[in-house]
Fold this sequence. Notes:
Elements: E1 2-4, E2 9-11, H1 36-45, H2 71-84, E3 117-118, H3 121-132, E4 137-139, H4 143-152, E5 157-158, E6 160-161, E7 171-174, E8 180-182, E9 199-201, E10 205-206, H5 208-213, H6 215-218, H7 227-232, E11 237-241, H8 245-260, E12 267-271, E13 274-275, H9 292-299, H10 301-311, E14 318-319, H11 322-346, H12 369-390, H13 394-421, H14 428-445, H15 450-457, H16 480-502, E15 511-516, H17 521-526, H18 528-535, E16 537-544, E17 555-560, E18 563-568, H19 575-600, H20 603-608, H21 611-637
Parallel strand pairs: 4-12, 11-12, 13-14, 15-16
Antiparallel strand pairs: 1-2, 3-5, 6-10, 7-8, 7-9, 15-18, 17-18
Amino acid sequence: xxxxxxxxxxxxxxxxxxxxxxxxxxxxxxxxxxxxxxxxxxxxxxxxxxxxxxxxxxxxxxxxxxxxxxxxxxxxxxxxxxxxxxxxxxxxxxxxxxxxxxxxxxxxxxxxxxxxxxxxxxxxxxxxxxxxxxxxxxxxxxxxxxxxxxxxxxxxxxxxxxxxxxxxxxxxxxxxxxxxxxxxxxxxxxxxxxxxxxxxxxxxxxxxxxxxxxxxxxxxxxxxxxxxxxxxxxxxxxxxxxxxxxxxxxxxxxxxxxxxxxxxxxxxxxxxxxxxxxxxxxxxxxxxxxxxxxxxxxxxxxxxxxxxxxxxxxxxxxxxxxxxxxxxxxxxxxxxxxxxxxxxxxxxxxxxxxxxxxxxxxxxxxxxxxxxxxxxxxxxxxxxxxxxxxxxxxxxxxxxxxxxxxxxxxxxxxxxxxxxxxxxxxxxxxxxxxxxxxxxxxxxxxxxxxxxxxxxxxxxxxxxxxxxxxxxxxxxxxxxxxxxxxxxxxxxxxxxxxxxxxxxxxxxxxxxxxxxxxxxxxxxxxxxxxxxxxxxxxxxxxxxxxxxxxxxxxxxxxxxxxxxxxxxxxxxxxxxxxxxxxxxxxxxxxxxxxxxxxxxxxxxxxxxxxxxxxxxxxxxxxxxxxxxxxxxxxxxxxx
Length: 639
């Protein structure tokens, strides 16, 4: 033992691994009643826990002559007394972490006090078992291990809180006989042991998460056996953030098992944290908070919702920015314009409906190749989106829909069918296909963008009163041969567009073409009009030939999926002017190669420049060489 100066008290000396022998003197005085680490040391060595502070942070009578002083004043007075009595060897500055309230900034003073605990061992065992058996599963699955590790090492849960609000702890004390009673009643006014009326309720309230843990059944009328409780408990899916898997999810599970006899849900979907564009946690102090009310006012609720859903997978944090939301606003605009186009196409058409009142599947015998392609892609998208949603891959399902609507339905199908729609005799199969595909697509997109889709759907032929209660679509028939033909023509169109761009052909100019379709004779025959329209080919100089391709002078040769397409340069560009332009660009690109090679050939630059600067020059050299090669090829094509 050692005698504590000033208060003249003997205290024991103990050895514990929590103390760092290399720090300071290697010895430290512990205060089990005023520090969490010291409290654990005290428990290991059966040390007394002496409280020396009042609730107002002043020293109490156990502090001897310092009683009544604030904690700050007491610290100064203790040092002065030790120095006056000759006990103080020296003082040293030491930086350490002091807990502060995150709202008011007040220093938090740890202090032991009487609290109510929930014994966790009997509650944790069944909660562990339902997860191990698969009765409750986590999405993503990696959080199963996180949950089990916490539950298997759980401590008893302190549920009393010293707050001004919350569920009052249902414990009553009798000051007459000392009886402590727990009751489910709202209040008691007399001691059940001695009959005295001098009873008072515990002033503390229950931990917020204790009350929240009861949510899955307390909101349904429990403890009464209500109709809602019988119908809606247990639920199917719980969706929340991974950061409260212990605070809320685990407690809902073991409280549901305890009071209802079965877990409250089957699946737990855990989303990530929304961060700023740089991946930092949003903070008012940093000034990087994105206000959802401001964003929705500027871009719309659906744009923000779709951006959040498609930005990241389950359990992963996501980076959010106004630019990402703006992109989804543009997507909503694209869908709006596609719907407006479809409605104009349906104005003078008779749209056939099925038994439910929805646009019927078009007559297969009347369909064109482009129609069969988009119907095939709709069937594939419907199947894939349904699979991804059932697997809780919401982000991938949203991206699948985005790609189908923007890149395929809008950019390819709507553009391709303009040939038949704007013909002297419009093809009614186009209007029927537009109505069918768009109505089913809005159903698929509705969970992601409910407001835009509901509004657009109401303008289409549809069944029922509201899209939110419409039946989820089933995949329709697929036409793989025709879909392959359309995909082949897509590849040809892309190649022709690239060639036009590389040679600076005016986008609106129609150019001649000679085509040897090879194995794609059926595709070129069925889609000749669409090819001419999409690739801006001249119908009067569109020559489809059979047999082996015969090379042509001064013409670009494009090979795609076995077909060969010749684009006569004379019909596309001024050959002499194009040759002069290419030669000038080759000179400029070659000069760029020379500058980069000269810099990289300097030993001082390589040895002294930062690695990222050297990398920039190497990337510039590689890009310049690639451009020289491409330009020389284009020049050779001119003959």
